[in-house]
Design goal:
By secondary structure, this protein is an all-beta fold. A two-stranded antiparallel ribbon has the order 1-4. Strands 2-3 form a two-stranded antiparallel sheet. Strand 2 and strand 3 form a beta hairpin. The protein is globular and about 25 Å long. Bound molecules: iron/sulfur cluster (2 copies). The site of one iron/sulfur cluster has 14 residues, from loops.
Length: 56
């Protein structure tokens, strides 16, 4: 299961650079994770200031 970003995301952008495979990008109103690219490393989740990233 890939990690997912909830609608709590405030689009701060800090998670984008944390992803080693470039799976995170700015979406429409919030950031999104490409489930096909995510390798479940979890490194993005801890840095989110609003806890919007969790394992799906
Ligand atoms: Fe990227 Fe790892 Fe987060 Fe998946 S869990 S989006 S691979 S940083
Ligand atoms: Fe959204 Fe959290 Fe990523 Fe910031 S770190 S863009 S609030 S998911």
């Amino acid at each position: 299961m890939a990690y997912v970003i909830s609608d709590a995301c405030i689009s701060c952008g800090s998670c984008e650079s944390e992803c080693p495979v470039g799976a995170i990008s700015a979406g429409d109103g919030q950031y999104v994770i490409n489930a096909d690219a995510c390798v479940d490393c979890g490194s993005c989740a801890g840095g989110c200031p609003v806890g919007a990233i969790a394992q799906g």
